[in-house]
Specification:
Blueprint: E1 4-5, H1 15-21, H2 31-48, E2 54-57, H3 61-72, E3 76-81, H4 84-95, E4 99-104, H5 113-121, E5 127-131, E6 133-134, E7 139-140, H6 143-151, E8 157-161, E9 180-184, E10 196-200, H7 202-209, H8 220-227, H9 238-254, H10 256-277, E11 280-281, E12 292-296, H11 303-314, E13 316-317, E14 329-333, H12 340-356
Parallel strand pairs: 1-13, 3-4, 3-5, 5-8, 8-9
Antiparallel strand pairs: 2-10, 6-7, 9-10, 11-12, 12-14
Bound molecules: pyridoxal-5'-phosphate (PLP).
Length: 357
Amino acid sequence: MTPKLFSPGPVDVSPETFAAMSHTMIGHRGSDFEALYASLQPGLKEIFGTARPVFLSTSSAWGMMEGALRNLVRNKVLCLCCGAFSDKWLDVAKKCGYEAEAIQVEWGQAIDPEAVRAKLSEGGFDTVTFIHSETSTGVLNDLTEICKVVKSFPDTMLVVDTVSSLSTVDIDADANGIDVCLAGVQKALALPPGLALFAVSEAAMERAKDTPNRGYYFDFIEFAKNDEKNNTPTTPCIATLFGLQYILEEISKEGFATRKARHAKTNTMIHAWGAKHGFELFAPDGNRSFALTCFTTPEGFDLSAFIKALKTKHNFLINGGYGKIKGTTFRISNMGNETEATMQELIDAMDDVLAQS
Ligand SMILES: *Cc1c(COP(=O)(O)O)cnc(C)c1O
């Protein structure tokens, strides 16, 4: 049996979600699909905090992370870099042929809004990329402050990745003035990978209209045109959409506020477990994700033996660090469907392994 995933994405998918996904296949150009599409909108709007439509892209998050650039960038992009995913966005921008610069902070630190203000004041940037919860380091950046700073520069488009924060904390895409807010579904929403969700501001739609060479697959205008008919430009991952419908129903039953509180609570449990064993948090106080925890590996601690024993003895998988902090950090996810009870099972298993070593 493959282990249950407590690594930060993909995360464990419930049997109920898989059951919902095994719905009889439907065609995507017809009323059954339109009803499915429409049924997703209220729940998605709530977790994004938007009155705008939420578009469905059959791709991983990176598809839309690249796609957003293709719709918006005219001259130069500023990438706010603080870990593996945000650093890679700079690389992707350059690979697309754009002029791009970075504000780079040390991994484990958060982006400083004043540094963003200073850099944007130099002029020339028309788009900013920003990752809310940097999944590689466990840093939760200050969404409200960063948005405030970027939005004080007219005609500067702000693209925000909420892959590992959406549905665990407030995003408030409209109130924060986010131009493109995007997420994949295999992290906090606990669905199988293959679907990205994104909301686009009116200003970003206007920008996209006149952007040349924005292609077809990720073209905002195509998504908006099809949304008017409760549809998508191309055949979407319909099974995953049935899964999403189920998850959104669950969020509605639980209540968004309760869901957020559950993530805060289960995250605290992992912090407390780490403190008990002398594992230090990699992210600074006040900038820590509520969806996952990144610990520094203590000197002399055999991390790979720990992860291996947890897997072979208890069939749980945690992550041994990502990118250049592989081995020197490790990460535990509490996102998705995890409860106090399931996190306690993991904690008991980790305690058991530590007691044996
Ligand atoms: C996982 C992750 C991504 C990449 O998602 P894919 O689905 O692999 O494209 C991007 N950003 C963040 C913050 C992530 O955690």
